[in-house]
Write a structure and sequence with these properties.
The chain is an alpha+beta fold and 470 residues long. The protein has four domains: 191 residues, no CATH class; 99 residues, RNA polymerase sigma-54 factor, core-binding domain (Arc Repressor Mutant, subunit A); 38 residues; 69 residues, Arc Repressor Mutant, subunit A, CATH 1.10.10. 47% of the residues lie in helices and 7% in strands. The chain has 21 helices and nine strands. The strands form three sheets. It has a five-stranded mixed beta sheet with strand order 2-4-3-6-7, with helices on one face. Strand 8 and strand 9 form a beta hairpin. Helix 18 packs across helix 20. It is globular.
Length: 470
């Protein structure tokens, strides 16, 4: 018989505080959202002072020696970025996820990848679908489904009834729906909120077992029952919190980005300029509020034992935390932006045809943070460059095969090449997709005809017959 024994073990286990959770979520906020956050904090904290923002100014991220509080939040952010290391696909890694405002008159496509104000959701999605699908039946079904989309981008339709009305099998309707859901914007064609969020997380490479469990139990998410969700996902409550912060980056109504209701104001987080032979990346002062703490030492000393001192101490602690969290956010954005610009120097020098394949993982490894941190930092952030105001996600592109054993070419680069070829075509004899394919091969790019059609559709370039001038 084994005698009872006492075994002692030492285990290091970090706990995520509410403030650390807020700091992580702060990474996903864009400049306008940070301004709103700071305004609310200042309204509730008499010790927090906000200096007037300086428009169109640049600043350098402060070093660690300028911390307003204790500890390094950046390390804390990444100690909690417990994502599946096998997760693949950058945010914006496929051309159907994310948009760009890039439209350089010098070398970029004259057809923007974002929808114009006058273009409806159905028109925008319909163009992509027609270019992607060649089967006549699937085209007919797709048109029916696209016409059935509501303004939010959802497909409020019974597939069984649709199959009967169209006289086709349910499987075929489901195939058409799957093709529709592969288009931009991510989340389009979903039948439920759960499906809409899942499609977006999948497109951005953030769908993992934890977020999947959260999506399957949105009732528990609404109740903020982290304990139950953690039990269902076999993970910690802190991992659940991170999963929920990823879900919060999704758009529950992707269709609302289209039509006359669309009003978008962008404040770029960074400014990129060429100084001599070097590309410099600077933080935009207008995007990063400058905070300070009121000098109320006299008030603190005058109420040594009262509730007033306790209140002011709490507000001072909160103000210092906010300043430190925003400082670390700025430093992380600065590092990620510099890594992106360094990786895409050829693009800045020569244009969109020279955009290199790039993933979140590559930038994460270079900066020394977790992939999910880079995902949060690049969400909704913009940089002002000589080639236009570009979303961080614009620079993340999947690779397309090349001939002759050369390095892969970025998908966005192939788009620019297609645009260039079509701009130079004879209007009376426009290039067919097959001819474009052959011309791309001559330039060392190996893609399928279907891919050419898809990229042309995403660029908003019509087919051969519609381009022909008679």
């Amino acid at each position: 018989m084994n005698s009872p024994s006492l075994n002692l073990s030492h285990k290091q286990d970090l706990k995520m505080t509410a403030e650390l959770r807020q700091a992580i979520e702060m990474l996903t906020l864009n400049a306008l959202e940070v301004q709103d956050l700071v305004s609310k904090e200042a309204a509730e904290n008499p010790l927090l002072e906000v200096e007037a923002a300086e428009s169109d100014t640049a600043q350098t991220a402060a070093g660690a020696e300028d911390d307003h509080g204790e500890g390094n939040w950046e390390n804390s952010w990444d100690s909690w970025a417990v994502r599946d290391e096998g997760a693949s696909g950058p945010l914006g890694g496929s051309l159907s996820s994310g948009t760009s405002s890039y439209n350089s008159s010098e070398d970029g496509p004259s057809w923007e990848t974002t929808a114009t104000k006058s273009e409806s959701l159905r028109d925008y999605v319909g163009k992509q679908y027609e270019e992607l699908v060649t089967d006549p039946k699937l085209r007919l079904i797709g048109k029916f489904l696209i016409d059935a989309l509501d303004d939010d981008g959802y497909l409020r339709l019974n597939l069984e009834e649709a199959s009967k009305k169209l006289g086709v099998s349910e499987d075929m309707v489901d195939d058409a729906r799957a093709l529709l859901q592969s288009l931009h914007p991510a989340g389009i064609g979903a039948t439920t909120l759960q499906e809409c969020l899942r499609l977006q997380l999948h497109a951005s490479g953030l769908l993992d077992p934890v977020t999947d469990i959260c999506l399957n139990h949105l009732d528990l998410v609404a109740k903020k029952d982290f304990a139950k969700l953690a039990k269902l996902a076999s993970c910690t409550e802190d991992q659940v919190a991170l999963g929920l912060s990823d879900i919060q980056t999704c758009n529950p109504k992707p269709g609302l980005a289209f039509g006359e209701r669309r009003v978008e104001v962008v404040i770029p987080e960074v400014i990129v300029e060429k100084q001599g032979d070097t590309w410099k990346v600077m933080l935009n002062g207008a995007a990063f509020p400058k905070l300070g703490i009121s000098n109320l030492a006299g008030l603190l000393a005058g109420d040594r034992s009262g509730e007033g001192k306790k209140y002011l101490n709490e507000k001072q602690t909160r103000a210092k935390w906010l300043m430190n969290a925003l400082e670390q956010r700025a430093q992380t954005i600065d590092k990620v932006a510099k890594a992106i610009v360094a990786a895409q120097t050829l693009f800045f020098e020569a244009g969109s045809e020279f955009l290199q394949p790039l993933t979140l993982r590559q930038i994460a490894d270079q900066v020394g943070v977790h992939e999910s941190t880079v995902s949060r930092v690049t969400s909704g952030k913009f940089m002002q460059t000589p080639r236009g105001v570009l979303e961080f996600k614009y620079f993340f592109a999947s690779g397309v095969g090349s001939t002759g054993g050369n390095v892969d070419v970025a998908a966005t680069s192939v788009q620019a090449m297609i645009s260039r070829l079509i701009k130079a075509e004879d209007p009376e004899k426009p290039l067919s997709d097959e001819k474009i394919l052959l011309l791309l091969k001559d330039e060392g790019v190996d893609v399928a005809r279907r891919t050419v059609a898809k990229y042309r559709g995403i660029l908003g370039i019509p087919g051969t017959s519609d381009r022909r001038v008679r």
